Amino acid sequence: TAEALQAAEDLVAAAGKHAITVNDSPGFVTNRVMMLMVNEAMFLVARRMIDQHLTDPGLSPQSIAEALGLSRAALYRLFATRGGGASYIRDQRLRRSVRDLFDPCKSHLRIYQIALQWGFSSESGYSRSFRRRLGMAPRDARIARSLARSQSCLDMDQPDTVLERWLLELR
């Protein structure tokens, strides 16, 4: 979108104010350095778009790539260190859903409601992703967290379980 491209251009322009010198030529920015700045800007714009549309089940690497005017391969390269765009989206959805799953104020919500709220298309797909990433079913994780809270009155801010440490790793 025009907004995304403008944000990327603004970031590149701001970075350009901090002139990088190469071969003692002030203000000379190599193509490689410029490309790295553009890629970083596009990555930040893509992350912001993902955060804004995380609950949309139609959010996909393809939709992000189209909105940014990138090929799907180019988007994958932007997210390569995070396993690709699809993996990044799934991890962000899992991270947010786990917070809801553990939130005592949301204990009345069914697991499938939480999954759908965070853009997963089905409860079974959510459970598979959850199990692959965390090694247990969402239901078991919710029960374990509830038991841990009731037995020790732990605060959510204390990373006392494997699941909560995982959440902190995703930040």
Q: What does this protein structure show overall?
A:
- The chain is an all-alpha fold.
- α3 crosses α4 and α5 packs across α6.
- It is built from nine helices and no strands.
- The longest helix is centred in the N-terminal third of the chain and has 23 residues.
- The protein is elongated and about 60 Å long.
- About 4% of the residues have low confidence.
Average residue-wise pLDDT: 80
Write down the Rg.
20 Å
Helix content: 55-70%
Helix and strand element order: HHHHHHHHH
Largest sheet: none
| Coarse structural class | mainly alpha
Oligomer: single chain
Hey, roughly how much beta strand do the residues contain? under 5%
If helices are DSSP runs of H or I spanning 4 or more residues, what is the number of helices? Answer: 9
Unreliable residue stretches: 16-22
Anisotropy-based shape? elongated
Distance between the termini: 26 Å
Give a count of the beta strands, DSSP E runs of length 2 or more.
0
Question: Could you name the key traits of this structure?
Answer:
171 residues, mainly alpha, 9 helices, 66% helix
Summarize the structure.
This protein has 171 residues and is mainly α. The protein has helices at 2-16, 31-53, 61-68, 72-78, 85-102, 111-117, 123-134, 138-152, 162-169.
